[in-house]
Sequence to fold (236 residues):
Amino acid sequence: MSSIVFINTVDAPDIYAPQPCSKLIPDWYKNTNSYIGETKTPNGNGSTTATIKRCMPVFDVMNAGYILVTHTDIWVSQKPDLPDNPNKIIPWFEWPSFDAISFHPEEQAPLHPKVVGTPIPKWINPWGIKTPAGYSTLFIAPVHRDNPFTALPGIVDTDTYTAPVNIIFTLTDPEFEGLVPAGTPIVQVIPFKRESWDMAIGTEKDLTEQNKVSTKLRTKFFDSYKTQFRQTKEYK
Fold:
């Protein structure tokens, strides 16, 4: 098993340390029934009554990698852009400890679809990351979550660059106001092995194989993909 190391560079409290995604599954998923009507039966038309909770691709992506959380409270308010443009209202960020957030001028990404004409906040991540040789890390917004932050994704070669990767983000709702408590998930980090890839268009042979897979998938009412195709992934 490969190892990923998180390095606490500013003495952030242990309570806000990175955790495997499996330890921070959102409540909406936990509270969803596995089957419509809580009954594991076919639906009367030859299909399953399984809900999204039985969807292994959703489960696997929610459990992939590790979660970094805010290590201090952040308060967001909407205020005039003083002194430059007092008629323009922009988000203001406050925090009680650490250097939690810095900013990029919006001119650095004027055409990015997530940039809305205000300074671009960047979470000062206290955690350096070290992966084995040949492994990089994908940084994405935590998936399938209702989060006030939307982290802008990126890839870093964390086998050679082990300093903290600061996380550029935007507000999911540009007009959001209120408290973002310490411990709020802000980014999902997924280590992966770097490889070179070639692209090709499938042949008739590939189509025949795919049709066999589809036929095999349809032989079971419940958990067909999970029991016949899915491979276990572990992040501890």
About this structure: The first strand starts at residue 5 and ends at 8. The helical segments are 27-30, 56-62, 204-217, 224-228.
